[in-house]
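Write out the 3D structure for:
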Amino acid sequence: MQAIIVDHVGGPEVMQLAERPMPTPPGPGEVLVRNHFAGVNYIDTYFRSGLYPAQLPATLGNEASGIVSGIGPGVTEVQVGDHVAYLASQDAYAQYAKTKASRVVKLDTELPLDTAAAVLLQGLTAHTLVTRAYAVSPGDWVLVHAGAGGTGRLLIQLCRHFGATVITTVSSEEKAQIARAAGAHHTIIYTEESVPDAVHKIVPEGVHAVFDGVGKATFEGSLQSLRVEGSMVSFGNSSGAVPPVHLFELSQKNLKLLRPRLYGYLITDEDHRRHVSEVFRLLKEKVIDIHIFNSYDLADAARAHSDLEGRRTTGKLLLRLF
């Protein structure tokens, strides 16, 4: 089978297309999936670049969709031929992968496989952030960074669904239009004005919560945008890791700071089922929608990473595996 291999950390160029052995047959409680699409996410770039540690050589990728091609003993959740999506373990950039049957999402056949791959990780991230990291409620003011991106669009849609007024940041008027179409009430073009100043012009006391997946470049401005007893949810590092934080910076306004990770909210199978079912229900009811910016051939995975890190994209990026 074909797969992307990373044998040393670095830029997008370290990803190489290679022929690899097929996975071993699925064991008890496992399924083998013939992947059709894999999602491309910022976390993949963190493992590739060395920001997050990875066991090398590595095959990247944390989500995929495809068709079940084999099941192990005792598997009752799915059958061979079922359409499925799943969260992977750094092995989705490959034509075949094994995963736990208890964590596979069986799909309705009318749901396209590309949509399923596109919604899973970012949809779960957004849903857990607005329900568990900070429970968004009617009347809240929230700031969402990178509102034209895949996770940003979903956060805007979900925050608005739960009754919040949404301010978002973008880099251009073109991206502002995308964010407004997703439901943002106010947009700030951060290349043209100070984000904290703009936020306080819109809502003088500041926002109740900030959802910040950008990291280093936006962290201080995010804290400054909060009101007294506001909540800072820092969940990503697309501009680089946040430097060490002096806790006294939080005390002036009694701020709350959280650095969650998705898998911390999906520890049990029940947690996983609950959040997955909610995400796909919201998708079916058109509360959220997915914008796929581009689907790249597996051989072009390096270009996908380059486009993502170069902020040349809006919405979701996918790899086509067959």
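The CA atoms of residues 65 and 85 lie 4 Å apart.
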